[in-house]
Design brief:
Keywords: ATP-binding, Cobalamin biosynthesis, Nucleotide-binding, Transferase
Structural class: mainly alpha
Shape: elongated
CATH class: Mainly Alpha
Number of helices: 5
Number of domains: 1
Largest sheet: 2 strands, antiparallel
CATH topology: Hypothetical Protein Ta1238, Chain: A
Distance between the termini: 58 Å
Radius of gyration: 18 Å
Helix content: 40-55%
Order of helices and strands: EEHHHEHHE
Enzyme class: transferase
Protein name: Corrinoid adenosyltransferase
CATH architecture: Up-down Bundle
Pfam families: Cob_adeno_trans
Strand order of the largest sheet: 1-2
Strand content: 5-15%
GO molecular function: corrinoid adenosyltransferase activity
Length: 190
């Protein structure tokens, strides 16, 4: 359980921060950038929800919760710690990735195949989902970079990869099932 009685602690005034296991590292460390970007993404998802309703809003709510799980996973570098510890690490699992894939398949069934690349835009929700897609890709790149030098849960990386795809397909859905997608016209302004 989380209890926050005081929001500021002054412990990070020197440029370091605590990880989920209590270790302190620099605030500009790659691990902090990776989970910080997932937190940034969560904020953008919150903005997207201002334009969403029904099943899309429900799915975005699930994704926001997943992103907190992802941040908790990424802030715990101790991949080999015993799960029976007092506070076992919360890890992303493949079932979360599988759920995204099932949702992508269900949404994609309503869409016509693409004949061009899509420019971010269209409806307000679609435009915001495209922002989420690009921030998700950045979070994925950071997690992949981190995984090249430190242990990272492979399900966390897979989740970010699938999540950006989810945002892309959801943006198409938000553009009248793809009918209002803004298509790229190569060389249009030459």
């Amino acid at each position: 359980m989380v209890v926050l009685n005081k929001i500021y602690t002054r412990t990070g005034d020197g440029g370091d921060t605590a990880l989920g296991n209590g270790d302190r590292i620099a605030k500009n460390a790659l691990r902090v950038s990776a989970y910080g970007t997932s937190d940034e993404l969560n904020s953008f998802v919150g903005v997207a929800r201002l334009h969403a309703e029904g099943e899309t809003d429900t799915a975005l709510s699930r994704i926001q919760n997943d992103l907190f799980d992802l941040g908790a996973d990424l802030c715990r570098p101790d991949m080999d710690k015993d799960a029976s510890a007092e506070y076992p690490p919360l890890r992303m699992i493949d079932a979360q990735v599988d759920r995204l894939e099932a949702e992508i398949d269900a949404m994609n069934a309503h869409l016509s195949p693409l004949r061009s690349f899509i420019l971010p835009g269209g409806s307000a929700l679609a435009a915001q989902l495209h922002v989420c897609r690009t921030v998700s890709r950045r979070a994925e790149r950071l997690a992949v970079e981190l995984a090249a030098s430190e242990p990272v849960n492979t399900s966390a990386v897979k989740y970010l990869n699938r999540l950006s795809d989810w945002f892309f397909v959801a943006a198409r859905m938000a553009n009248d099932n793809g009918k209002a997608d803004v298509l790229w016209v190569p060389g249009a302004n030459r």
